[in-house]
Amino acid sequence: MNELIRELSVYLDINLFDTRTSFLFALGCGAVYIYIYLCSISRKPQLITGATRLSQFLQRYCPVVTETYYPTFWCWEARVQTLLRPFITTKPYVEYRNELIKTADGGHISLDWSDSDDNALYPISTTRPTVLILPGLTGTSKESYILHMVKQSEILGYRCVIFNNRGVSGEKLLTPRTYCAANTEDLETVISHVQKTFVEAPLMAAGVSMGGMLLLNYLSKTGQQTPLKAAVVFSIGWDVFECTASLEKPLNWILFNYYLTNCLQASVNRHRHVLEKLFDIDYILKAKTIREFDERFTSLMFGYKTIADYYRDASPNHKLKSIEIPVLCLNALDDVFSPGHAIPTQSAKQNPKVALLLTAHGGHIGFLEGIFPRWATYMDRVFKQFIQAVFEHKDELKNT
Q1: pLDDT tens digits for 113-159?
Q2: Residues 83/160, Cβ–Cβ less than 8 Å
Q3: What is the pTM of this model?
Q4: Residue 209 annotated to the active site
Q5: Is 335 a catalytic residue?
Q6: For the chain, what are the domain ranges?
């Protein structure tokens, strides 16, 4: 019996030692992770602009640009942030009013309006501030990131209108034409329509990913002639050559490129009866990458001789000098869709109307924060504070 007790005592001592060792090891690993997170992952964003006045305006009325961005500690990596946002964040309910407007070539564009008629902050519809929102490559007004932007606008009493690219939101394609990042004709039609509908209402725009690229290309083309008071863009691809090269890396192709290519092909196939008059649909459906899709379809549709010509024209990185209204551009330096080294920091410093806000982490349209990021993200906070600054302090903005 004594021998049995001794053996049991030794056994318990060994297991207690193992438990203590495991606990101390886990505690040590946790401490190291917290240290790395606080010192290397959580950082203040870089605010880059060529004008002291614009910088001061942003720091005064958009304090988020000076705050440390704490990405969700368990999913701060770029790909994880990008992949999880659509599944983690809620999809708040928004009741839209749909409108189809005609285009010069016989097509039509679907607009979804959130009028904020019940909001007491701006009871007069004719003068209610309006935000035009442009979704990403395959996005519509129903994307979670769009719904959150609309909700942020509603809190402030603003009207929103979402520009759905041709053929993506359920409407029929009337002509053999869709959309691209370089051609701004449809956007010009939409902006003109919105401005004429509410002549007295101040108007600004927000673009996400490809929508932001399209918006900057429009602004570089129109200069001071635009009716927009300001603009904000998120996670845009500055250099399309670098964007496609990044997305064609093996892991990125598996996680993102293949899926987006299939989405683009599905849209083409859905409108086959209209598009097959001008394009070889079966050949387009065999594309394995976005680059191949653009080469076989997008660049041809808009009259480019080569894919390189289209990508050069679609890239906003060399057009910043022509922008003449205040623009805030939020990008994460780890965005695999838009590599950090391709962001035109030097060009931004040469235009007093442009400000770059660069976070170390955030991925592509990710910017998750908080322990369980179900609601507003860092991107949503930037959006809300900037549009409020534009509309509530417009006189000061004019002087930047």
Answers
A1: 999 998 899 999 999 999 999 999 999 999 999 999 999 999 999 99
A2: no
A3: 0.92
A4: yes
A5: yes
A6: 1-41, 44-239+320-398, 240-314
